[in-house]
Amino acid sequence: MRLRLAGAVLLAAASYYVYLPLPSGVSEPWKLMLLDALIRGFMRASDVAHALGVCHRLHLLNRVVSWVEEVEPRSCSAVHVSDSSLGGVPARVFRPKAGRRLKRGVIYFHGGGWALGSARMRAYDSLCRKMAEDLDSVVMSVDYRLAPEAVFPDQYHDALAAARAFLSAPVLERHGIDPERLCVSGDSAGGNLAAAVAQELSSDDALPVKFKVQALIYPVLQALDFHTPSYQQNRAVPILYRPVMARFWLQYLGGDASLEPLLLANNHSSLEPLLLANNHSSLDQPAIGAGACSKLNWTALLPAERTERFRPATRETGSSRAMAAVPALLDVRAAPLLAELGALAAAPRAYVMTCEFDVLRDDGLMYVRRLRDAGVPVTSDHYEDGFHGCMAFAFAPVWSSVGRKSADNYVRWLDQNL
């Protein structure tokens, strides 16, 4: 009887910990709840280890990821897989064993807040295998350096070095890649790196070979407004909570964790151009300027149906401390959404995937609008039942319908446009 009671209590406690009141439209919510519960458990354990001085929280999280997710480079009948390097940066290479002589080429940057994950993770290994086989393409998945040892612009420089090497004649010739059919792609923080690399290299007139397309999967593109409609709507929706995204940004840009409340309150910036113009000389005003504001003014860049229930978070006075301590908040290499129209106009044809239940949804949708305003052809692929990281659910053991659908549509777009 006591054992049954203890079991019932444990089951109730576990159910209480796992259960989250998710929006009704989320695809297969119990799978998301279970995965989120595991992630929350590991994050809390890492916070305890960090507080006790055992190790940095990111080191423990990456050890867990490595133990649970990383797989060896195993070839199969259709695809040869090997670990190599690209421009001095580690990369996993997927090459079809048959097919056309000259193949498509894809360079891919994984997500993880510039701090977690690797190209060796099972989900990325599976996705790149699928691309290599379904597209008859050579796929190079890059292992850029991670925080806390690496901070901006280290990750960006790794991505840029790998991309330049990928576009070089020796690499294209060695792997039999068609120089007219090249793609740069990535998800989340990797989508940020892919967008930044696409902007930089598309404007480099010295490059004889350039990317034909860019494919961005729920990309993170700015850190000036943590009160966009999607940040407000999805602040407590897993897997990417609003405070976690602010923490990732500070880790990436080398900012102190004490600045997190300023970012979350939009106290580091104001989205009211007139306010900035009138108070630009004040020491307690963030000096970002109306130009930067216009590039992420979601009241103008998003459709009315997405903004009507939300109001911008603006302040008459703000703290200049965050801007002074983390000037990279305004660096277009870190925040591609802030690019000038001229830089965007040179960028390649784009695919941008967004999910309804994702704090980063509006980053992607604003980028779609800005690319189109610059004259760039863009396919906006939005999933009303999707959530951040859902493409990882395209493969066992946690596959879901939105995961499979998003991965299939992403590969189908590449097949039709690359």
Question: Can you put this structure into words, describing what you see?
Answer:
There is one protein chain. With 418 residues, this protein is an alpha/beta fold. Helix content is 44%, strand content 15%. The protein has helices spanning 2-18, 29-51, 57-69, 122-135, 154-166, 169-175, 189-202, 229-233, 242-253, 260-264, 273-278, 289-294, 298-301, 304-307, 321-325, 341-345, 361-373, 401-417, and strands at 79-86, 89-96, 103-109, 137-142, 177-187, 213-217, 349-357, 378-387. The protein has an eight-stranded mixed sheet with strand order 1-2-4-3-5-6-7-8, with helices on both faces. α4 packs across α18. Mean pLDDT is 88; it is low at 5-17 and 271-287.
Main attributes of the structure:
single chain; 418 residues; alpha/beta; 8-stranded mixed beta sheet; 8 strands; 44% helix; globular
